[in-house]
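Minutes, project check-in
Item: structure for the 170-residue chain
Input as provided by the requester:
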Amino acid sequence: MNKRAIYFILSALIFVSCIYSKPITPIEDEIEIFSEPEEKPLRYTLTLAAAGDNLFHETIINNSLENGVYNFAPIYSPVKDIIENADLAFINQETVMAGAAFGYSGYPAFNTPQSLAETLAQAGFDIINQANNHAMDMGRAGLYATLDLWDTIEGITVTGARKEGESARI
């Protein structure tokens, strides 16, 4: 074979290899790997808002009187969005709301107007704790009147106090 024939064959091979070549890629890129998608674990969240010692002295009671009606809503307006948006909103109601017949009073024996109960519900509280050192400030009758009041407010759960003979309010 002469040199010309060898050059021709080599040139033809080089030419053909350039036309039909494709880029060399790692083998992993060409293999499709099938796997089950990972399941994300279920995640539950609970937002809890809690407030404590909701205690009304005479100054607050007197300043909340507007046109003969006790309006406590302005006290809670700065935090109402937080309370309403919580999944559970808890408050320790430090005073009883025994009613006007017991006389509204502050320290040392508290009795807050009953309109506070509806205000707390409208602010978004769900759970009311009545177990504290002022639960008996108006005696058993005052505590029972407060518990009866809570029974009239829909969506409220009262904990920590109960009437004699009742099961625990949990």
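Outcome recorded: The chain has a mean pLDDT of 86.
No further action items on this chain.
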